[in-house]
Structure formats: C-alpha cells, structure tokens
Amino acid sequence: MSSTANGKNGTWRNWGGNVSARPAREVTPASVDELAAAVRRAAEDGLKVKAVGAGHSFTSIAATDGVLIRPQLLTGIRSIDRENMTVTVESGTPLKRLNVALAREGLSLTNMGDIMEQTVSGATSTGTHGTGRDSASIAAQIKGLELVTADGSVLTCSEKENPEVFAAARVGLGALGLVTAITFAVEPVFLLTAREEPMPFDRVLSDFEELWAENEHFEFYWFPHTGSTNTKRNNRSAGPEKPVPQLKSWIEDEFLSNGVFQVANWVGRAVPATIPAIAQISSKALSARTYTDIPYKVFTSPRRVRFLEMEYAVPRAAVVETLRELKAMVDRSGLRVSFPVEVRTAPADDITLSTASGRDSAYIAVHMFRGTPYQRYFTSAERIFTAHEGRPHWGKIHTRDAEYFSRVYPRFGEFTALRDRLDPDRLFQNDYLRRVLGA
Predict the structure, then answer these.
(1) Is 107 helix (H, G, I), strand (E, B) or coil?
(2) What is the pTM for the complete model shown?
C-alpha cells in the first residue's frame, strides 16, 4: 500500500512546477478502510497527513513532509440515483472521467471549470469554478460528502446530516478531513451553443452588465498590451449538435491555443521586448466561431502550456473598475505580460469559505508563463484586488493570511471553530493552512 514519491528521490511536484515537497512516506489506499488506517497510523507516528490530487494548485495547499495520500485507486462512480438526480463518486476520480461517464449515462453537471484534469476532491476542496450567471462552482453542486476525520472515523454530511460540516467541507481546503466520496447533483445531458468572438476591451467593460445578464455563461480574455478581448457566451440550446470540426478544433485548440502559444511564450520569455507585438497577433489569431455540443465539450479545453496563476474574486459590482485599474497598472508599469487575463462570474453561494460565499462575484485571473519572473506583476495586481476586498482562489498564488481572511469572509470564525472540533491536534496541518487559517 505504501510507495515512494514520484520524481527524483521521493520529491513530489505540482503541475505548475513551483511547489515541491518530500513526504516521509506515500500511501495509495484502495479503500476507505485503508485510508482510515493510514490516518490512524500517521497520528501514532506523529506525522501530518495531506491528500494530493492532480497537483493543479499553484499554492502549497497539498504539500507535506509527513504522509502524502494519493487517491488514484479511489476512483469511479459508486452509484447513480435517478430519482433524486445525484451521482456519488470516489474522491480520486478525475473530472474528465466523471464527465465522460456521466455523458454515457445521459447525464451532466450543470456547470464546470475550463480544465478537467483535476480530481473531484481536489477541484472542489479549493473552490474550482467556471463562469455562470445562475449556476455556481463545482462545490456548489455537491449534495453530500463522505470524509475520514482526524480520529480515523468516517463522517458523512449533507444539508440534513451534519449540516454545519456540510456548509464548510464542500470547500474544505483539506483542513477538516480527507474527502473519500462526493455526491453531486446532476441533470439530463443538454446542449450548449458557444459563441466566441473578439470584442474591444472598452466595449466589454461598458456592456459588461448586459453581457452578464443576457447569457447563462459569459467570460472573456483580455490580452494585455492590446485593447482586444476574446469573449465567450455559452447558452442552452435545442440543437442540433454542431461540434467544431476535428481539423478546425485541432488548429484552434491545439495548434493556436497550445502549440503556437507555447512557442510565442518561449520567444517572449527569451526576448521580453517582443511580447506586446506577439500579444497583438495572439489577440487576433482566434477568429469568431459558433458551435453546439454537450456541456463538458463546450466548458472545458486542453491547457498544455504551463503557467503560474493568481485569481481573485471581487464583488461583481466592482469588476469593471477593478479591470480598468489593472489595465492602467499594466500600461504604466513597463511589465511585459504574454498571457491573457481571464474574467468570469459566479452567483453568491452558501459555502463558508467559497470565494463566492454570500456575494455575487466576478473572477479576474492573471497568468505568467512558467519560468518567467511573475512577482512584480502578481504583487501589483494583488494590491488592486485586495483594495476591492478580493478573495483569492485557494489553489492559486496569493500572499494573504488568516488576519486578512477574517475580514473578507464574514463566516471565517465558523470554519476555524469547526476545524478546532474536527482536527484539534492539527493532523491535517501544513505551512499553507497555518498561514491562511491561523495556528
């Protein structure tokens, strides 16, 4: 059951390559019982415990020098309940496998993020989201959770059972226990028509409320050093299905969005002065297109170019002002930014530490190509985001701590009190949790 870490001499690394850890041991449990036993043994040995999914977080939220739990044997669908329209899956199931399996059963999640490499528990525990006017993050679609707590016991929660745990554990940061299964609300599979088109930055900002109100899922990418954006509107459709033709899909999603983009970023990293010119070309490379397909084929796309990312949720009412400040900062800073800024929205939800907890939110994500110095850009952006009481994505780079979070999350104390109850000895603690939740 135990194994060594991947990589050289037992080192674990995240997807972005900016976080590494050397756990004392790794465990790959094949059942909930084995996982519970591993938790009890770690406690006896005085070791901390962390579960790691696909390593898609840019923060050290999953890093540990204690016991690293790998969930790849805890995968697959446990059950489908067609009467209540729910599906229960093992925590290590990759979102990709869940989406494909659901589609085969004629079912779908209501909303999802734009990549699907992550495990269901990793994605929900960090608050991963897509964009939506009425439908929220992946965690907001959870109807029930099963977790192994610090004493090695299995706890289940839902709106009716242990509701105070349910309120917090849907976005639990790995601090309350190790999630072993998740029950999601699902619906009959449906079609979405995606309309992608370039639009001037100023027009997107002046029409933002309208674009948000008129579309079920609206998002856009702004290319720094240009006045251009690429907008995407996804709305439910009666059909017929009209997927992007395979060659066109390869050219646009693989060649332009991944291949050429990778080369452009290599050039930009080597010769930063070329970035504004490359940005002008990049912003015009993707032409307008409309296609209709099942949800996961519309919401998600491959991301093969490695980058680092910071994303903040600001009140939706503040998004236009925040973006104007961000553009002004980039324009006067002399920074060279080769990655577009991504803007999405989510309605308020009732999850204690969800970035959209209790307020309608807009997300602004800034990225830098891996291997490029990112600190100055991210620090300047973060200053703007925090001035608007922004809440950083739990799995993306930020410098905030418990003192800050206690101000921007009205229910912060509710979460930490629950953690005191479920994990009094801090078995699931690591440096990141110490910083964001306090000791």
Answers:
(1) strand
(2) 0.93
